[in-house]
Amino acid sequence: MNNIIIAVDGPSASGKSTVSKGLARKLGYNYADSGALYRAITWYILDCRIDPNNNAAVIKSLDDIKMQFNVLNGVVNFLLNNRSLTSEIRAESINKYVSIVSAVPEVRELVVKWLRSMADCGNLVMEGRDIGTVVFPNAYKKFYLDASSEERAKRRHNENVPQSESMSVKEVKESLSNRDKLDSSRKIAPLRIASDAKVIDTTSMDIDQVVDKIASLL
Ligand code: CDP
After folding, report:
1. CB within 6 Å of ligand 1 — which residues?
2. pLDDT tens for each residue of 153-163
3. pTM value > 0.85
4. Is residue 131 part of a domain?
């Protein structure tokens, strides 16, 4: 595998998605959102009325998932059992359970295998929680984006996602903080800063400033 990988990790709503997309566009690399795959599996589990806290049932359900990937306009897209998933994986019901599902070792093993295979399709900017630490420990460059919890809650609240319609900034902040706690404390591949990652606090930066800063560091 000789393609160049840039890893962008960080907590919820730290600006990873928008920055990673912008960076990939600027560099002419492909962009991949690893969190979308954990969200998609969580969506499938809930859609099948499986209890996300029942590890054995969650693991069993993985056998019924067929994931297909394709790259369109520099974005790695996926179909789960031939179905395209968009806004449904951003619902608050998914936010509520995704950190529980993503802590299951078998789920992570499967997703990491999918993520690594994306490196075969070209140079890649991939965002997530463990991209620099676990998925691509030899990535060419690693970035860890962070922002204050207030700023992150405001950003997520302003996004055009289903939960922002009915939740206050305070509720969004609680939901993010709950997920961050679970993601940082799990045994396997917890959210942490890779020793060789460059940390960027984006609290008072806009997207273009972050993209430019990363580009200047590359
Ligand atoms: O967009 P946001 O930052 O809110 O989250 P996301 O990137 O869509 O990730 C959703 C969830 O997937 C996270 O809260 C983690 O539980 C899980 N995840 C993970 O465990 N490892 C990754 N590399 C990416 C996401």
Report:
1. 12-13, 17, 34-35, 38-39, 98-99, 102, 128-131, 179, 183
2. 999 998 866 55
3. yes
4. yes
